[in-house]
Task: structure prediction
Amino acid sequence: MSTWIGADAVRITRQVQRLHDLGPRPLFELLAELGADHFVRDDLEHLLDRYARLDPGLVAALGGRELKPPVFVVAESGQRSLEANQRVRGAA
Result:
C-alpha cells in the first residue's frame, strides 16, 4: 500500500513510471545511491531479495504490473476525507 496521498502520490507515480521507462540501469543507480547509506543497505538488500522472488505470472494475474492512478475522495471535512480515502485504498 502506498504511503503517499494526494498530489504527492500523483508526482511519485509519474516519477516511478519515468524511471521504469528509462530501463534497468537508472533503477540500479538509484538503488546503489540508496544503498550507499549503510544504515539503509541491509533493509534495501532484504527488500530487493523479497521482491525479486515474486512470481511474474502471479503479479500479472493480480493486476500488479502497472501503476494505477491514485484515488481521490471528496468529503466534507479533513478527518472524514482521510478516513474515506483509506477505506477506498483498502478496497482497491
